[in-house]
Amino acid sequence: MYTSSPFVISALLVFSLPLIYVLAPRILQPRTLPTIPEPDEADDLALFRRATLASVDPAGGAGLRRRPPSPPKIAFMFLTNSDISFAPIWEKFFRGHEQLFNVYVHADPAAELVLPPTRSFKGRFIPSKATQRASPTLISAARRLLAAALLDDPSNAFFALVSQHCVPIHSFRFVYDALLADPGAPAPAGSLHRRHRSFIEIVSDDPGLYTRYIARGDNVMVPEVPFERFRVGSQFFILARRHALLVVRDRRLWKKFRMPCLKKMEDSCYPEEHYFPTLLDMQDPNGCTRYTLTRVNWTESIGGHPHTYTPAEISGDLIVELRRSNSTYSYLFARKFSPDCLDPLLEIADTVIFRD
Question: Do 86 and 345 meet the contact criterion of CB atoms below 8 Å apart?
Fold first, then answer.
């Protein structure tokens, strides 16, 4: 009797199938990076619908709900997965301007966040979900912040996304006046009023553009996002209110950008740097400045992270250098700073940072 008989081989195959089914997922590496859980997506969709309905003109118009007579406000939206070490310097930045801003914090629920009991940050946490680098969860977190700010206060005119490693490099009044004084985008047909522009980097000639485009696989972005319309930019931005609403209303492009990247393309997967520039460039290119107002030093980047400033580098000269830009405006914020930069930054806050 031969163990290689067809009957024996067939029997072995039949009995081994359940074992393969159980062990294969543990042995074989997944082809894609983690994606967004369906319950999280359903929660987000409900939130975005509420934000959209709350922003629609009740008279039946297609535009934004008319703002109340109160002055326009800036919504500062902090995206963090650790402590906001620079809360004290932000508190100095905010002081005396309580009627002109709101603060919203999206903290990764997996992080044990300990926030200083500062007035502006207290109670400003929004319902959040877990985030992960190289995944669309960072897009979802930013969209949650936008939706929460849209729902919270109709006076929010600008929506500034910043990180826990970001600090202001001008006074609040300088930042506020710069945004409100912007000449704005051309007025739409039939209107005499120019519209606020969004300050977001939009790049179409990045050397790695195609590699980033195919990070989810060949041809998976078409037809919604052909390669010639794909854009990249910085993760942090300042959006005008109509663009914040445009982002939370979007379903068409989101179904492409929510797709997980291939694991082999992890080094090219930065969805949050792709989705917002592409969406806004496709929907309202003339309404965006195409540059960011957050300064980041990429000359010494490591593993996709920018240069991190240390206490020894903090000086008045550094702040002056960080403000310089090639655009109409100087930079308003800067990153990335190590947490132990707080004390040296506070030492020059009144004499340099907040003296414009």
Answer: yes
Exposure on the CB side of residue 160, measured as CA atoms within 13 A = 22
**Separation of alpha carbons 138 and 51, rounded Å:** 19
Q: Give residue for tokens 């946490």.
A: 125
Residue 162: name the closest of 235, 231, 82 by CA: 235
CA 192, CA 37: separation in Å to the nearest integer?
45
Tokens of 245: 């609403």
Contact call for residues 276 and 247 (beta carbons, < 8 A) = yes
Q: Sign (positive/negative) of CA torsion 336, 110, 75, 327?
A: positive
Structure tokens at 236: 């942090």
Q: H or E segment at 188?
A: none
Tell me the per-residue pLDDT of 22-76, one tens digit each, with 9 for 90 and over. 444 444 455 888 889 999 999 999 999 999 999 876 544 445 565 555 899 999 9
**Distance of alpha carbon 244 from alpha carbon 143, whole angstroms:** 8
- Structural domain boundaries in the chain: 38-56+68-186+195-353
Looking at this protein, which amino acid is placed at residue 351?
T
Residue with token string 């008279």: 59
CA 310/CA 108 separation, integer angstroms: 25
- Is the separation of the CB atoms in 238 and 293 below 8 Å? yes
Q: What is the pLDDT of residues 108-157, one digit of tens each?
A: 887 777 666 678 988 888 999 999 988 999 999 999 999 999 999 999 99
| Packing angle, helices 137-152 and 275-283, rounded to 10 | 60
CA atoms of 171 and 90, how far apart (whole Å): 10
What per-residue confidence (pLDDT) applies to 119?
85
Instruction: Indicate the burial class of 306 (C-beta count within 10 angstroms; 0-12, 13-18, 19 or more).
Output: middle
Residue 151 has phi, psi (to 5 degrees) of -70, -35
Query: Which amino acid appears at position 242 of this protein?
Result: R
Element (H, E) at 102: strand 101-107
